[in-house]
Design brief:
Elements lengths: L1 H9 L11 H7 L2 H17 L6 H25 L1 H4 L17 H22 L2 H22 L6 H5 L1 H4 L1 H10 L4 H24 L1 H7 L4 H30 L5 H22 L5 H30 L1
């Protein structure tokens, strides 16, 4: 592994005479991850009490997306050495030779500063502070500190992906409340079973670069047990918005049904049913989308009827 990483470091400049294209910089932003950030931030904004000027709301969501993209760019800059060795990430812009690391670093830092400053000036300081914390947590706490040092990397580092609904909520209310913390908690507790299900069938990628993902250091049995335990935690959190009365009866029914489905798949992973981890990974994405979409839909319909 060390030889592979050293070889990459020595040949880290873009190959050939091809100049970097706009698409290469866009790929640095991790658009699929950014789309989840946009969606959950939007739901936080819609679910928050009060009203917000549509132009300001659009600006808030856009700047949150830019901040999330900046985090992705800085993560790719820092992880370029291991990305070059892992099959899943070898085609990313830096290891593929499409961008120089320095370009990615400058791009990420510029977008990080711009998104936080503009969010503070245009919307409010609370949302800007949360966005700055999100970027710091993902780049420094997760990417630089936890990822290569502990199997709990995805547990603690998962907080970075859980902040967007809080930021959207804060954009409207200029505050952090128990409701926004519950939205944070849903994503925070959802991340380990979601990501560990993925890591069960790509563990060899992490093993060959020395990243201590749970299946690599603790084995499949322990990983399956932890997936089940975290699933028992995330499901009650998923239903909590109904009991805290910032979600309606439709959300209560949907979150309960999908929560039972989530637990059923987690049990199948624990029992080592064929392709259960792939099914849980795919369903976990649907689960999060349906919960947040239902919450937003209910709030929008209630507001329209009012």
């Amino acid at each position: 592994m060390a030889d592979s990483l050293t070889s990459f470091d020595e040949n880290i400049q873009p190959s050939g005479t091809r100049e970097a294209e706009a698409r290469d910089f866009f790929d640095l932003l991790k658009p699929r991850v950014m789309s989840l950030v946009i969606f959950t931030a939007f739901v936080g904004l819609v679910a928050a009490p009060g009203e917000m000027n549509p132009v300001l709301a659009f600006a808030a969501i856009f700047l949150i997306a830019v901040g999330a993209g900046a985090s992705g760019a800085l993560n790719m800059w820092y992880d370029a050495d291991i990305d070059a060795v892992m099959d899943r990430t070898a085609k990313r812009p830096i290891p593929a030779g499409k961008l120089a690391p320095g370009d990615a670093l400058g791009f990420g830092v510029t977008l990080s500063i711009a998104s936080v400053v503009l969010l503070g000036l245009i919307v409010n300081i609370t949302s800007a502070a949360l966005l700055a914390l999100t970027i710091f947590f993902y780049v420094v706490v997760y990417s630089m500190w936890l990822k290569r040092r502990t199997p709990q990397n995805i547990v603690i580092g998962g907080a970075a992906g859980a902040f967007p609904p809080m930021i959207g909520w804060a954009a409207v209310t200029d505050s952090v409340t128990i409701e926004s913390m519950v939205l944070f908690g849903i994503i925070f507790l959802w991340t380990p079973p979601h990501f560990w299900a993925l890591s069960l069938f790509i563990s060899k990628d992490y093993e060959k670069v020395g990243v201590p993902m749970l299946p690599v250091v603790a084995g499949e049995r322990e990983t399956r047990k932890q997936i089940l335990l975290y699933s028992f935690l995330v499901v009650p959190f998923g239903i909590a918005p109904y009991f805290l009365e910032f979600a309606g009866p439709v959300y209560g029914v949907v979150s309960s049904l999908f929560g039972a489905w989530f637990l059923g798949l987690a049990m199948m992973v624990w029992r080592k049913r064929e392709k259960a981890e792939r099914r849980l990974f795919a369903f976990s994405i649907l689960y999060l989308f349906v919960l947040f979409a239902t919450l937003a839909f209910e709030r929008l319909i209630t507001g329209w009827l009012a």
